[in-house]
Amino acid sequence: MATKKPATQSRIADNKKAAYNYFFEEKFEAGMVLEGWEVKSAREGKVQLTDGYVVVRNGELFLIGCQINPLHTASSHVNPDNVRTKKLLLKKDEIKRLISKVEQKGHTLVPINLHWKNGKIKCEIALAKGKAEHDKRDTIKDREGKREVERAMKSRTR
């Protein structure tokens, strides 16, 4: 009797800048409409999310600024555009709820990461609110404090 393997999730790309610049209120997992060469490039890890953002057009969500660099072995009949706008796939009720939240002042949709789920590429997006400058300084202070504690614990165990 064959047993199913558990679904593995491996990260393709992370947007570390997003956690520094925004507070995440809600997270969603969206499917993506991609071309074949984009999937192959994603397998090779040639994806950059740093400048990406999500917009709403005609009741649909689109990922803009996500850069997927084509492989040098790409087919000659394919004309790859590495910053092509990609459609995100969510349920209608989730999209409606997101649209109503994004219309509020200070809220935006930010891509957090791309990952594999059951053989498909998924984009984790977050409903986010921008951080003020003092909040960013607090984030840095907390991160450095944790790093110092880890160093002290590590040196103590030696």
Descriptive account of the structure:
With 158 residues, this protein is α+β, with helices and mostly antiparallel strands. It has a single domain, classed as Small protein B (Small Protein B, Chain: A, Beta Barrel), CATH 2.40.280.10. It has helices at residues 16-21, 36-43, 92-102, 133-157; strands at 11-14, 22-32, 47-48, 53-57, 60-64, 67-68, 86-89, 107-117, 120-130. The strands form two sheets. It has a seven-stranded antiparallel beta sheet with strand order 1-8-9-2-7-5-4. A two-stranded antiparallel ribbon has the order 3-6. The model has no long low-confidence stretch (mean pLDDT 83). Its main location: cytoplasm.
Average residue pLDDT = 83
Low-confidence stretches: none
Q: How many structural units, i.e. domains?
A: 1
Shape: globular
Biggest β-sheet: strands ordered side by side in the sheet: 1-8-9-2-7-5-4
Please summarize the sheet with the most strands: 7 strands, antiparallel
Structural class: alpha+beta
Compute the number of helices: 4
Q: Percent range for helical residues? A: 25-40%
- Element order, helices and strands? EHEHEEEEEHEEH
CATH class: Mainly Beta
Instruction: Write down the CATH topology.
Output: Small Protein B, Chain: A
Secondary-structure arrangement, i.e. CATH architecture = Beta Barrel
What Rg, in angstroms, do the CA atoms define?
19 Å
Cα-to-Cα separation, first versus last residue: 49 Å
- Give the strand tally: 9
GO molecular function: RNA binding
Family: Belongs to the SmpB family.
Subcellular location: Cytoplasm
Pfam families: SmpB (PF01668)
